[in-house]
Specification:
Blueprint (H helix, E strand, L loop, with lengths): L2 H11 L4 H5 L1 H11 L4 H13 L4 H16 L10 H4 L8 H12 L15 H13 L3 H26 L4 H18 L5
Helix pairs in contact: 1-8, 3-4, 4-10, 8-9, 9-10
């Protein structure tokens, strides 16, 4: 998967912001060009964009679904890998440390200004984008096998099950892309 694709998925799974909200159509175009047989999902995403044109209304619609999905109340799909791999199901568990250590071993350090933990879904996808962009294929494959793919196998079904506009469709597109890469044995893409 190219760096651009990783970044496109990371953009959606970060907290909603105006820039991503206003450029959602461009992300949809990228996915429809690169990932085959996604017409039905792409159409659902286009319908959402038509229903909520760029601007405050679309951003609010994204927030409306993002908050219960990832942040408050009975969180439907925690965006932190530690929740799925620790005995206690807590944020900032051993997986967060393992991921942060992997970043450091590859020469990357997370700044505190990011505001996210190392094992957040969007952060892990951004890390893969950096590795892909820098031609670090071996660490990318290793990270996917040890960290990203097991995390995706846990979180994507939860996101899809919610049927929340945009997030459910994007989770399905990401899942199909990752499955295709695994079948091809080409984790780098």
């Amino acid at each position: 998967m190219s760096a651009e694709l990783y970044l496109s998925f990371a953009a959606v799974f970060h907290r909603p912001n105006q820039e991503v909200s206003d450029h959602l159509e461009e992300l949809i175009d990228l996915w429809s060009e690169v990932i085959p047989d996604m017409e039905e999902l792409v159409q659902k995403l286009r319908t959402f964009c038509h229903q909520f044109p760029p601007g405050e209304q679309r951003l609010n619609a994204l927030w409306e679904h993002y908050i219960p999905l990832f942040e408050t109340g009975t969180v439907e799909a925690s965006p932190y890998a530690s929740v799925y791999f620790g005995k206690e199901g807590l944020v900032l568990g051993k997986e967060a440390f393992n991921v942060q250590q992997f970043y450091a071993n590859c020469g990357y350090v997370m700044g505190t200004e990011s505001g996210e933990l190392p094992d957040h879904l969007a952060v892990e996808l951004e890390f893969c984008a950096m590795l892909a962009r820098n031609g670090q294929d071996e660490p990318l494959i290793e990270f996917q096998i040890k960290h990203l793919n097991p995390f995706l196998n846990n979180i994507l079904p939860r996101i899809k099950k919610t049927h929340r506009p945009v997030y459910s469709e994007v989770a399905t597109i990401l899942e199909v892309r990752q499955l295709n890469l695994q079948k091809e044995g080409d984790f780098v893409g």
